């Protein structure tokens, strides 16, 4: 069963972004990443998310090219790492990413973390890349409300996406509402809580809907209007994670999942970026 993923959201500039994608954080460069991306594209996924830090951009590029899909049917995201931030440094980092990806353009380029004193000049470089047509959309990752307000106070092009850690234990409701008001698309990383899905409510809902706990959580993200990029290197799990467009959670069940929130992070606090 293929994923029904010509399902998209429209970004501020009219670019269509798939609602569901594959994350490749900690997927090994080489066969592991290439096989995961190939499995995702075969299953119908059309969004692949990588980054300079992940050290697997070359594998992502090879798998996209080998898929036989037209380039405009695969949405590729990458990001510069924190030690590559700054205006000139970001432009150079982007070229290095392009050399590894070996693609003509990137669909979405993100500032990976809000490095104090650098993210504004870094974002100016993204605006330049966007204006010359090297990227189709630009945005940020791990930005909180105050980072976004600070950036939007001086930027010429509003961020189109904010990719953040989000899951049932970290629901990010205030940030989600802020981004919705501003027209910034929220995208979730680590949506499956590092596999920590063995929660009584998720097991109950999985039984109720005839789905897996992972599928319940992915569906919850989608119904919130959040793009999500669960990571896996297993073809069967990738296919399974994509089978989420044939059911809908009730409002009550959405609210019950919301109530799991503990403001618990598995990743770093964006207010303390010292890496």
UniProtKB/TrEMBL annotation:
Domain annotation NADP-dependent oxidoreductase: ranges: 19-262
UniProt xrefs under Pfam families: Aldo_ket_red
Annotated site (Lowers pKa of active site Tyr): 79
SUPFAM superfamilies hit by this protein: NAD(P)-linked oxidoreductase (SSF51430)
Statement: the UniProt record of this protein carries the keyword NADP: yes
This protein's record includes keyword NADP: yes
Binding site residues for substrate: 112
Gene Ontology terms, MF aspect: oxidoreductase activity, acting on the CH-OH group of donors, NAD or NADP as acceptor
Top-level taxonomic group: Bacteria
InterPro entries: AKR, Aldo/ket_reductase_CS, NAD(P)_OxRdtase_dom_sf, NADP_OxRdtase_dom
Entry keywords, A to Z: NADP, Oxidoreductase
Family, per entry: Belongs to the aldo/keto reductase family.
Protein name as annotated: Aldo/keto reductase
Protein source organism: Cohnella zeiphila
């Amino acid at each position: 069963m293929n994923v029904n993923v010509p399902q998209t959201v429209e970004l501020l500039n009219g670019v269509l972004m798939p609602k569901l994608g594959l994350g490749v954080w900690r997927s090994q460069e080489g066969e592991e990443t290439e096989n995961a991306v190939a499995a995702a594209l075969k299953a119908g996924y059309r969004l692949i998310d990588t980054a300079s830090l992940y050290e697997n951009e070359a594998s992502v590029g090879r798998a996209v090219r080998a898929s036989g899909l037209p380039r405009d049917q695969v949405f590729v995201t990458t990001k510069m790492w924190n030690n590559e931030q700054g205006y000139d440094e970001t432009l150079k980092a982007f070229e290095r990413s392009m050399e590894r990806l070996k693609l003509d353009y990137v669909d979405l380029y993100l500032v990976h973390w809000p490095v104090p004193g650098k993210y504004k000049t870094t974002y100016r470089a993204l605006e330049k890349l966007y204006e010359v047509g090297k990227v189709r959309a630009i945005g940020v990752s791990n930005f909180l409300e105050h980072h976004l307000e600070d950036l939007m106070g001086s930027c010429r092009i509003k961020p189109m996406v904010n990719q953040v850690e989000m899951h049932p234990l970290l629901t990010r409701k205030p940030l989600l509402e802020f981004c919705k008001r501003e027209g910034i698309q929220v995208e979730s990383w680590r949506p499956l809580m590092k596999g920590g899905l063995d929660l009584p409510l998720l097991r109950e809902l999985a039984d109720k809907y005839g789905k897996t706990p992972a599928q319940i959580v992915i569906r919850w993200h989608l119904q919130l209007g959040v793009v999500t990029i669960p990571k896996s290197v297993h073809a069967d799990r990738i296919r399974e994670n994509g089978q989420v467009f044939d059911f809908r959670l009730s409002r009550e069940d959405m609210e019950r999942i919301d109530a799991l929130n503990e403001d618990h992070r598995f990743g770093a606090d964006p207010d303390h970026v010292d890496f």
